[in-house]
Each structure stands twice: as structure tokens, then as C-alpha cells.
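One record is given unchanged without comment:
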Amino acid sequence: MARINISDPKYYDNRELSWLKFELRVLNEATNKNLPILERLKFVSITSSNLDEFFMVRVASLKDMEHAGYTKPDIAGMTPTMQLIAINEKTRELVDFQYNTYNKSLTPILKESGIILYEKYEDLNENQLKYIDSFFMSHIYPVLTPMAFDASRPFPLIRNKSLNIGALIEKKKDSKMAGADNDDVEFATVQVPSVLPRFISLPADKGGHDCFILLEQVIERNMDKLFLNYNVVTASPYRIMRNADFSIDEEGAEDLLREIEKQIKSRQWGEVIRLEVESTVDKKLLSILKKNLGVNEIDIYKIKGPIDLTFLMKLYGIEGHGDLRLPQFKPQDNPRLKAGESIFDQIKAGDILLHHPYESFDPVVDFIAQAAFDSQVLAIKQTLYRVSGNSPIIASLAHAAENGKQVTVLVELKARFDEENNIIWAKKLEKAGCHVIYGLVGLKTHCKIALVVRREEDGIRRYVHLGTGNYNDSTAKLYTDCGMLTCQESYGEDATAVFNMLSGYSEPAAWNKLVVAPLWLRNTFVSLINREINHAKNGKEAIIIAKMNSLCDKEIIEKLYEASNAGVKIHLIVRGICCLRTGIPGVSENIQVSSIVGTYLEHARIFYFYNSGSEDIFMGSADWMPRNLDRRVEIMFPVEDQILKEQVKHILDVQLADTLKAYMMTDEGNYVKVKPQRGKKPVGAQDTFCKEAKRNTEPIADYSKKRIFIPRLANEVFNE
């Protein structure tokens, strides 16, 4: 390693470009011919939604840096300006691929499957045209507000992410409003109402297809009804993306809740960072938009198809056509937990591992619900980062407070794009009598922990839930996460210490089990990697397997490079961003990186260290990113129960063996789909876990006998 400078930017990938590679992997699923057509459309929708957030936050942040004259390069040696140029190029390639897939592959298959989505009203038959004209007058026209722009009226304020129709209009010759400037063409715009469905059901065509048309096309056809004294020269949909990133001076904000409420409102009117228009948009109309929105040419995207494909998620959910979707999997009961029995008695019988969404999230909901009404429960403490719109956990916490229990809830108001939702819940909890904490100054509280303090015959006992995902019963059906229920005193003591630290800045002298960021987590990871390095240098087998969402921390990457060069075998399962490069001689020859993109969003964080056969396993809420290790409150917890360790190792086993939904990073930094070896059946990790959950009713004591962990790299797993 002395001969190689592992800090050299050429050994790292840029964070934003790595994220766009992940977007490409997601979009690739839309080309998967083994998936039903509506499933493929869903991945197109997800790509659009992800790209919106990427621009509003990451691209916006880079633009802020550029405006401020910030020129410091990132770990890949790229300045903000260089990143923006590269992002623009890669995003255009991605969007072109997205619309080529949608237009040339998916819509023809959709039609063959009995569904037609008309993109232009000119394609409708006479009966359908009469229908949409009538529908417009009865359902759409009353909602619309046309806005003109001329010498006496300023350019309208256009809301972030809203779909609009811009038009050039001219006064009619016989209009009473006509004057000397009768020939002047003016600009007008109307917002496509988000309160109405994006697509409208039409009478079936002669072929009996289910027919739909986009809302903006119905409005565009009837634009003349909005400007009765004008002729509509041209009209075209457009959409803008604004800078939605905001920073808060928490030291100077006397009321954090009020300050965030104010910032949420300002998010609608930030700098325009992207303008989407139809590829056929009139040049004069585009010029007016460009000038008045303050958009640079590089930030204009001419779209060959419907603008904003996120509506395809709604199309995915249309009634009927079940054969065009995958069968919906119902999360199964955990075999260790019996319905109708006290969850506290069952936790006392031994630690319990939960694997969502294959196993139901109900035990977590029941954990808080039973605590709320249990007369022996004295206190409940919980962190909340993102919760569902009608959260049963929130309701249980409120009931607990009303029942006289001590309830402390840390609601993270700075959870991006969930700020408004969290403010609502915080106020509701306070009203119910809960003690609500709004996080720590300068830090986001991202850890997932719940503590129930219960009075029992032998004294006070503390029950703890620790997880890798949010306390959100809705996303728990879509995200893969792990959680652990325990009443071991060592975990209970640490959980109490965590909440005392969050509410009163009281740090314990020592911790039993939990590792907390930003205080100790980084150093713990470095120490664990160093231990594997020492084992390898002493001729022992050394293995690191880490599963996470993102990897972009330079210190951790450098340490992994050092471990690889020492002979440690490293396999990383990284869903999204990965700034580490594999296969570099003398740097990363012993590192493999895979990424699984499937029906569910991979979200769990699991860390395995072979430790000369002693095998240490941890799970937690943190990725290997600077923000998680240095600027957030995170928790990592060990899995020590032998049965649970075998379960977690099995999860890693199957993920490493995936040849159905896994991608492998190449030496060039790109990703290729993993293919099963000749003569071997393909393994899909998510499919495997679904099948196992359905049939996993045998006693848990037999679990370790049935699943054997193979501590090797992915191309060797399950091939024996």
C-alpha cells in the first residue's frame, strides 16, 4: 500500500454519478420481459419520482455551491461545476432511455394487453371526443384558473413540480377587448389540477380496450373555453423543478417547529433548476418560459412523451387486470410470535428477529399497542423519523399518554420531505400529553429504537425494539428491513441511556451493547475492519460482508482498500450509491460489490465480520456515509443470540447467491446483471424469502440446522 496513494481520486466514483447508475439499474427492470407489463411500468414511475428528488436536493445543492464560488473537488476529484456538467449528460441519456423504453416497448405491449393510454386527443374517435368535452365542462372547467401575462400583469408564480399548460393567445378581431395592439400575441398559463386524476377513463374503442387519456390533453383541447375573447395560437404542457433543499440556522431558530414550517412553504418558490417541455413546444413559447423562469439552456429538457411519468404508479393500481401484475405477497406471521398472547411474555422467552416485508410488521405495532393498554407498563419511549399517514403507532402512543403512562417521543422534524407530516404528528402527540422532543441541534435523529418500561413480579424490566427501518406500517410492506425484540438487561440499560442522551444530553460512562453515532460508530467500524486486517496479516481467514443502502465515506473506503490489499475477502451488498471501485490491482482486488433491484426496496443494514471464526454480526440504521457517521444520531446493535445469528447469516447467504435480481460492479465501475452458472437454477433473494416465510412454520430451534452460512464471495456461494 505504501507504493499506492489510495487517496487518488481515480480510485473513487462520484456520489451523484453513482446514484444515476443506480437509477439505470432501476430503469433496467422496466425492460425485463419476465415481468408483467404493469410491473414494468411501475419501475418507469419509480425512476421519475427518484429523479425529481435527486434534482430538488442533490442538483440543487451543487448549484448552490456553484453560485457561492465553491470549487473544492469531491473524493473523485470533481468540482461542483464539473459534477453538474457530467450529471446533465448522464441524466439526458437516462431520460432518453426511459422514454424510448416507454414509447417503443411498453405502450405497444400495454395495448396488446387491453389498455390504451392516449397521449394526444387527436387520436380519439368522435364518441370519445364528445365524452371528454362534456367531462371537461362538468368536472374540470370549474377547477381551472387561467393566468395571463402582459404589461399589466406579472408573470405568474409557478409551483414546484406542478404540471402546467403554457399558451400563446391573440385577441380575436371582433373582440370588444381588441385595440390597437390587436395583433400582439400574449402568454397565458393554466395549472393542471393535482386534485384531479392524471388520466381519465374513456368509452371503450371498437377493439374493446380499456381506454384512458391524460388530463392535460383534455385541458389543452378545450383551452379556447378558458380564453373566450382570444384565439389559442399554440399550447403545450411544461413542468419546473425548484430547489427544495433548505438549511436552518438551528442555533438562531428560537422555535424549530415554526422555522421548519416557514421553510416548507418557501420550498415551493426556490430557484428553478430544471424545466421540462414537450419536444414539439413552440420556440416563442419556450423562449418566454426560459426568460421569465430564469432557466439556463442546459437545464431545459425536451421530453418525447408525457411529462412526469410518476402517474404510471396510479395506472399500475387500476382495477382489474390482475394478470398484468405480480401476485401480491402477504407478509407472514413470525413463527416465534403467537397471536392473542402477551408480546412481553414471548420476548422474555428469547430474542426475536423480524424480517420485513416477508414477515409482518404487526408485532412492532402490537408492541406499542399492548404497552399502551398494559396496566403494568410505566413508560414508553420511541424515536420517529418517518411514519405513515394514518399511523397506528402514533395512535397507540397518544392512548398511552391518555392512560397516564410516561410517554417520550423524539419526532425528527428535519426528515426530508416528511417535515410537514411530522409536525402534524408532533402536535397531536403533545396534545395527548406526550413529552415530544424535536431532535438535537445540528443533528438528525435517524436511529430506530423503542423502549417499554414494565413493572413485573421480579422488578422493573425493559423491553426494546431495535430496527434498520422506520416505524412506518405502510413502507414496511415495501422495504426490506430487519428488527430485533429483546428484554436483555444490557440492551435495556443502553436504550435508557440513548433516550437520556437525547432528552437531557446525559452520556453514560460506558455502553453495554449499542454503538451510537456520531460519537463512537465511525471508530467502531474502523476498529472492526482493522481486526480483520490483522487476522489476514497473521495468515488467518478474514472476511467482511456488509449490506447497506449507500457507501461514500472516504475513510471507510480507504480502510476497505487497505483490508483488501492485506488479503481480507470483502463482499459489499450496496443498493444505491457506491463510491468505491472494485478490481483495481493492489487496491481492491479482493472486493466485490453487488446491488439487488427487485420488487421490494432493499433497506436493511447488516455488517458481518468473520473474526477468526467467532463471527460478529451487527445491524443498524446507518449507512457508510459521512452524514450517517458524523451528522446523525444512529444506532448499531449486535446480534448475539446464536439462532438469530444463523437467521441473519442466511439472509446474507441468499443475497450473495442472487442470480435473478443482482447486479455486479465491474472493474470499470459499471454494473452488469448477474447470470446463473450453467446448469444452475437462478436464485432470487426476494422470491426465496417470500417462499420461506410462507412455509416457515417449523419450530425455530430447528432453524440453524437447516441453513448453513458459506463465508465466501458471491460467485462461490451455493455452487457446491
Observations:
- The first helix runs from residue 15 to 28.
- The longest strand covers residues 230-242.
- Confidence is low (pLDDT under 50) at residues 178-182, 697-720.
